[in-house]
Each structure stands twice: as structure tokens, then as C-alpha cells.
Amino acid sequence: MIVYSSSVAEFKEAVDDNKIAINIESAFKEKLGKRPSVSEWRSWNNSMQFMERIIRNSKVADDCGVMIEYNIPATSKRIDFIIAGQDEQHNRNFIIVELKQWEEAWTTDKEDIVKTSINGAIRETTHPSYQAWSYRQFIVDMNSAVYDTDVTAHSVAFLHNYREKTPEPLKAEQYEKTIMEAPLFLQHETRKLQEFIYKYVGKGKGLQLLYDIENGKITPSKSLVDHINALFEGNSEFVLLDEQKIAYETIVSLAKKQDKKRTIIIKGGPGTGKSVISMNALGGLLRNSLNTKFVAPNSSFRNVMIEMLTKQSSRSKMRTKSLFMGSGSFVETEENQFDVLIVDEAHRLKGKGSYMYMGINQVEDIVKSARTSVFFIDDHQRIRPDDIGTIAEIKRIANNQNCEIHEYTLHAQFRCAGAEGYLNWVDDLLGIQETGNYNGWDKDSFDFRVVDSPHRLYELIKDKQSKGHKARILAGYAWDWTAPKQGNSNGQIEDVILDEHQFKMPWNGYAIRESWAIHPDGIDQVGCVHTTQGLEFDYVGIIVGDDLKYNAERGELYSNYNDYKDKTGKKGLKNSPDKLNALVKNIYKILMSRGMKGCYIFCRDQSLQNYVMERLSRTMKSENTQ
């Protein structure tokens, strides 16, 4: 959606009359239904004065098209400035101009990342040229009016307040490739920018191109589909097996019809392959030219999926990342804006009042926004009171929106070395559901142990990691978490403390929280359910804190409100011990089902430690009598 558009002639006149910011504000309120912030208004008033001089002095034709604040479809990102027209050979072009009011910047050792002053503090952000290039790439990948016609897209970054330094951090060697793809112009380089603009759009006739871009169908280009296909090819982590293949083909077959609204519910416990199917469905639906997005409430899960899929440069990650969205992104989207939305970890969808969510019901948002909505769900993995994603809720909303409902249940166990018996045993152990599974599982296929100290737990996991396995220490939320602003940006403070064992470790670092599961530093930090739900490792070591204890006299597991430290996770549950206990037990089941080859556990509560050991020894006796 274009917030403001005009010819170059109209744009120059509006700036001359000092009305450009007022005109943009008026269009902003009309198109978006809200007022811009004071900082946005000031930015328009300032930056558009510079752009008007650039455009006027470039001497481009008055019938070039100007687009300001172009809202990239299905995102919250807006492009500052676009100018469209023809070159001397009558080729149709448009140029994205990313405007920055920066005055200084510093390099980092991260690809395409720099530091600058943002809101009064020095923060990391993407290089302006990378940002301009990424916006161009999204349009080229997803807008049919661009990739299906003879339109060529260009992008630049213009820092009109920035005086070049010697040496200049923004032009450091590590950013050269990015600047070649999206040229960078500083304060003293206005003449070069003028020449660049005239070269590609100077001959005008750009208004129709603006119309075409705004009204172009949003669907994946062949180039993007080929890119995604290449990522899946040969990637053993996303191979479909047996009933996973059936579920995948069912999703693709139903979604391709596009003749009515449909809601597909895929039910399955931990390790049944929900994420493998959902990721493959993303690729399969894109191959069928359907405007599809992968949705996950947990940002850590989304980012690890992208890392696992790409394993390449930041540019590859960016193209792939554009297909992934958070579950709170659909409050203001139009009905059926997407062909398909694939929702993994749907049990974590939120309702009104959840952190940073401005809507009422994320299930309703998603069903409304897509012609076909696909939900992968496990009702037993809800871990917070504001997790409203249940099968019953999805069905209720789907019926309200006249969706044809399809259900599919996954049974086969592909995690925990196929040890379905182990997961049933965990259900019974934690009192989540009675399975009557006292016989345990094939001990040769899955290694479960109760260890006598957190030090021994750490030694076992470190040993597995050193031998090439994916291994991590995990814990329940039974310790406070020191905030980054208190000097704990990347696990500097050891919050997970067991004084009786002289044991200390930090929680997973804030700076790497979204990639902790695969980051090299992760082995020396303790992960929580929010950084691991939906993911899998070869081996996990679980520290069960004081948030889960065992009453030997009553034969019951219980949770204490004060010992469970997740403030959001226990909101409203102070006088609801049974609900709190159910959520805490769900958390430990999730943690105990993250390992594919083994799980080692240490319980701080001695009664719980004894109970788990007794239950484990019972499975051993049963196995020996068979």
C-alpha cells in the first residue's frame, strides 16, 4: 500500500508551499487510520526537503512518479521514498531511496551490521545499503507487477546529514559488496545521487508504474521459489517420512483449490514431525505460486528454523526470513490477503492483553487473513495462561467464519529415537494423562538417566557436545532472570544457582536468545522452554527447580506460585494452584521431549528425585522380567 504518491511536479510544488509533511500526514491518517508519531512527522518535514532538492537538481521529467511511505505488503515495514520513470532507452525503472538522518556510525564484525545512535543510545542495526537492498529484493521476489514485466528495480541509501570520516566506517571493506548492490550516498555526494536518479528514471512516464506496483498481485516469483527449493534440496533435517508425507500432500492438495475458506488442523504430540511437515508445506505451496507465510508465535523457534534452512549468507537469510511472520502480525490485514498461512506451535497463540499484541484473538486474526489456514497444534503444550490456541478455539472461529474444517492426527514418533513409550511414560510420570505405561521403553533406543548432581548433568552434556552431538542444558523457570539493562546482555550473570551443590550457570544470553539453540556459546548457558519449544537436540540435560516438587504422602506433584519465576506465565494464577501446576508440568514435558537420543535429569527437590528414580527403577524391573 502506498501512503502518498504524486508526480514529480506535484511533489516539488508541495515542498515549495511547505505542505509536503501535512499532505503525507493526511494520507497517512486516511490510509492507515491512525496519526503518525511526532518523530515521523519531523522526519518527513526534514528529509523531503533534501529529496526535493535532489529531484529538482537532477532535472528528471515532471511526470516521473513519486511514492512516499510505501507499506511493504504483509509487513510493518515502510519504504521511505520511491521514484519511478524511464531511462533514455525507454526501459521502465524505479529506485528505492532509504533515507537516514544519521550523523555518525561504527563498524561491527557482523555481516551487514553497523552501530549508530538510535533513541539516545548506541545500538546495532542493519547497514543502510543492506536495508535498501532488502526492500528491493522483497518487491522483486513477491510483486508480480515487477517480476512478470520488464520493470527493473534499483535501490540506494542517502544519509543527507552524514559527513564522511577518514576512514569511513560505513564504507569499510566488509560492506563493499552490499554497497555495490545498493549504492551509499553521503552528505557531499548529492551530485552523484542526482546523476544516478536521472540515469534510470530521468525521461519520466512513471505514474502508471506506481499504479502497477501498488496493484501488483503478491505471490512468489520463480526466482524465490527456486531459491527455497535449493535450500530444501539435500537437507536431511526436512525429509518427510510415512504419515508426514500424507499430511503434507493433504495440505497442498486442499490449499491449491482456493475455491472456499478452509481451516486445516494437524494434531500431534512432541516428535511427531509437525515442524518438518509445516516447513515442507511452505516450500510446496510456494512452488504452486500461492502467497504463503510461515507463522510461529515464538521468535526463537522462527529464527532457528531459518538458520537450519539457510546456513548461508545474510542475503539468503533475508530472502527466506521474508516468508516468516510472528503471530501478532495480522491484526490489521485484510480478509483473505494471503492464500495460505501455516501456523506452527499454534498452542502458543495469544489473546487480548498479551505482551505487544494489539488485537483481540490471534486465531481469529489468522483465519480471517487467509483463504486457507493450517494449524499445527498440541493441546498439551500450552504453558502460559494467555496461550489460547486450542483445537476447540480454532474450530469455533473457523465455524464462525464459514470455513470448511479438516482434521488430521499424527501418531508416529520420530523424536526420542522412536521411543513413543518414553513419551507416554513421561505423561504418566508427570501426571499429565494416565497412560498406564509402567513398562517404559526400549532402553537401547533412548538413553534416560537420573543423575545425582547438576555438575554431573553438565559433564554429560558437555561430553556429548564435544563428540559432535547437539546437546544443551535446560531448566524450568525456577530462577529469576537478570535483565540486560542490569549488565546481563549475554549471560554475564549466573542466575541459575544451586547453593547446596556450589553450582552456577547463566540463563541463555539475551543477545543470542533467538539462535541460542545452535549458537556456540549456548553450551555454557541454560535454556528455558521459550528458547527450545518446537526445537530438538540429540541430548538434553534437565534441571528441575523448586517450581515442581513431589509430596510423598499424597503421591502428588505440585507447584508453588513463589517458586515459579515467570511473571507472565503465572499471571492471574496465584489462587489457582491446579492451573499453575498443569502449566508447569507441561513445561517439563516439553523440556524432557527435546532430546532425540537421550535425556538426563536432576531434580532439586529430593522427594521428586526419589520419585523419578523409583519410577525409572520400576521400568528396569519390568524390562528384566520380560
Automatic annotation (TrEMBL):
Residues 261-605 form the Schlafen group 3-like DNA/RNA helicase domain. InterPro entries: P-loop_NTPase, SLFN_3-like_DNA/RNA_helicase. It comes from the Bacteria. Pfam families: SLFN-g3_helicase. This is Schlafen group 3-like DNA/RNA helicase domain-containing protein.
